[in-house]
Each structure stands twice: as structure tokens, then as C-alpha cells.
Amino acid sequence: MTETRTNAETAVIAKRVDSGSADTAEIRDLARAAGYEVVDELTQTRTEDPAFHIGKGKAERLAEVVARTGASVVIFDNQLGPYQTYNLGNELPEGVRILDRFRLILEIFGQRAQTRKAQLQVELAELRYELPRAEAKASLAKRDERPGFMGLGEYDESREQDIKNQIANIREELETIEETEQHRREQRRESGFDLVALAGYTNAGKSTLLRRLADDLGVEDNEDLHPDLDTTAESEDRLFTTLGTTTRKAELDRRDVLVTDTVGFISDLPHWLVESFKSTLDSVYRADLVLLVIDVSEPVEEIREKLVTSHDTLYERNEAPILTVLNKIDAVDEAELQRKREALSALAPNPVAVSAKEGQNIETLRERIDDALPALQRERLVLPMTDDAMSLVSWIHDHAHVEGVEYGEQIVIEFEGRPEIVEQTRAKAGQLEASPEPT
């Protein structure tokens, strides 16, 4: 469904706000992430016009800007209705495309989707976007008995049901994929890994932080290697580099930890779009600990708003503790950092302040991760001096933190690990004791 472009197109940004001044920084970043070159912008402060979204006079001015710049696309940082899109199209030069904010985001998602799961989520979001437009066509066609009313295209009475059937099929396939991923997560836990998930808004520095925490390459061959993990891409400052999750191993002193990075949150997303990509956040919801990464260089009110939205999203289904990470402290001085910590204390009572880019306070973060993860269980086992017991000792070394081993007539091993691992070692040790002595 998503269009693929080989050459960069030029775009004009348009944005309407009810009050105040329009900030176009984020929509420009989104346009750049989609591969567009922004050549001009037009903003307006007024209530929404039902026919054009912006006022009629502003729509005419927009057409002049497009003609002067030769732009091939107009990108609205607003949600446009089907009739507004049609009316604006009549004002603009022939052949100029119109994208609203959410159509642009879907285009970015479509470009980034590499795995089957990501592709399904993009398709689901596009269908959810199209469904109300199909319903509008159906309603108007029935009321006015005029197929193609308002330029919305020929009315196909089966299209609406077609979309609903496709949505149901995609949901079913996504559920199957999630069952497989949940089984994989349980296998990781049974292997002694703690699961840590990175969450936060785009450009907060999650990918750079993953580089700092991780010790090796992607854990699984079938998981995407995050493009931001390439040294050439680390400082590119791109939104939505990938839709797939990236999991890497990070060894703490006493633990084996898997850290997973997911697509970043973005502001002002409609409910239907958030719902389409919720399964992407399952690795967050099912983690042992969530690191909520915040760009501390942003204005404090913007940070507060993002913290509130993030908490609403995470606490909806998440049961794991959340540790707030104030990233990019290299971009603020100590006084500003302290002011922001105090202002945000109600939402982030005990955050860790780091610079993923410069590597500041990463060891402190590792210590806090260790403290916040589920408590390890200590165990002391006395094993017979046999080949099978030596194999069990090797297994314990791979799955737990061994504090000491004594070899003599018997093997005495002291270690600590996840409760599941301790339970498995006891079972394996019990089988050793029950085995008959070789003759």
C-alpha cells in the first residue's frame, strides 16, 4: 500500500493551530525522515475551517507558495478529513499530492517495515486509516445516489466489508506472531536472562544508549539489526529508523541481561494508529524492567507532557518497574539539570542522568538496572565428583552468577541466579544424586 520513492521530492509544510504560534520542528523532522526536502512552510492560527481546514484565503496562499516553489507535495501537520483533502486538492496545482500528519507517519512506517510483523502492522494501520473514508463514501453514495460524490472516488459497496475482513485477518496473524515471540521470551528467561526494554519518544537517544549498554551483536539472526547501531548511522538523528525490535546482550556484573529497543513514541497519534502498533510494545509490556528514556535538553513542560503520556501508555498493560533515564546531560549545564530534576520529581522521583553520546554515568545506570531487576536467589549445592556433575557446573556458569566452586571428593558450588534457574539446578542436582554409581 505504501508508495516507494526513489528520488527526494520537495514539500511545503502547512500547519494550523487553534491558538498560539505553530511549531513546525517535529513535522519537518518527520518529512525529512520520509525522504522529503522541505522548501517552504505556511502556518495559521484560527479555528478549523470545515471545508479547507485552513481558511479559504490561506488555501489560496498555499497554492501560490506551491506554484512558486514547484513543490510536488503538501504536508499538513494536522488530520484532514476526506472532504477537506478534496477541496484543498482543487485549489492546488494539478498533480500535487496532499499528506496529512498521519498519512505521512504511515508512509515512514511503510519505508521502515522489514519484518513480517512490522509489515502487517503498517497494513493494519493503513486499513484503519482507510475504513472511515470508505464508510464516508458509502454514506454519501447512499444518501445522494451519486457514486464518486465530492470526488471521493467510485463507491464500491463491498469495499467497506472488504477492509473489515482484512483487518480481522491481520489481527489473527499478528496474534500468532505474538504467541511465538512470547514463547521466545519465556525461553530466554529459562536460560537465565533478565529482560530490559527501552521505551521513550523518538530522538530521545534510545539507540545510542543501547550501543552503550550492549556488549555484542543482535542476539537472534531473525531480529533486525538496528541501523542506528552502525557507527556511520549513530549520529544521524533520524526518526523511526526501524519498526522492528532490536535485542542485544548486556552483561552486568552478576547478571546476563537482554536489552530490547523498540520504535519510539510520537506525540499526537490517533487511537487507531496507536492500536495498530501496540504489539510492537509487547517486548516492553513483558519485560522485567523498563528504561524510560527522556531527552533532558527539551523544555521542561514538553518533558512533563511526554512523561505523562508515556506513563499512560506503559502502565496500561505493563507490570514491570519503570526507571526513568534523563539522557543528553551533555547538552545542559548542571544548574539546568538540577532545576529539571526538581520540576519533574513527581513523575520521575529518582531518575538516572546520563549522556549516552559521551558515555557519562553509564556505570551508574548499570548499577541501578541491577538493583531494579527482580532479586536473585542464592544457592549452595554439594555435588558428587562425576562427569555429569561437572557438566552441571558448566551449565550453572552459563546461566547464573557463580561466586565460588570447591573441588575435592565432592563439588561445592555457590551461586545466585533467577529463581527459575535455581529451581532447574536443584532438579538437575536431584537427578545426579538419584543416578546409580558407575561400576
From TrEMBL:
Lyase as UniProt keyword: no
Positions contributing to Mg(2+) binding: 207, 242
Cofactor entry: Mg(2+)
Pfam family membership, one: GTP-bdg_M
Coiled-coil annotated spans: 110-190
Location of this chain's protein in the cell: Cytoplasm
Gene Ontology MF terms: GTP binding; GTPase activity; metal ion binding; ribosome binding
Domain Hflx-type G: 194-377
Keywords on record: Coiled coil, Cytoplasm, GTP-binding, Magnesium, Metal-binding, Nucleotide-binding
PROSITE patterns assigned: G_HFLX
Cellular component per GO, a single term: cytoplasm
Residues that bind GTP: 200-207, 261-264, 327-330, 355-357
Self-association state and partner proteins as the record states: Monomer. Associates with the 50S ribosomal subunit.
UniProt record similarity statement: Belongs to the TRAFAC class OBG-HflX-like GTPase superfamily. HflX GTPase family.
NCBIfam families given in the database record: GTP_HflX, small_GTP
Protein name: GTPase HflX
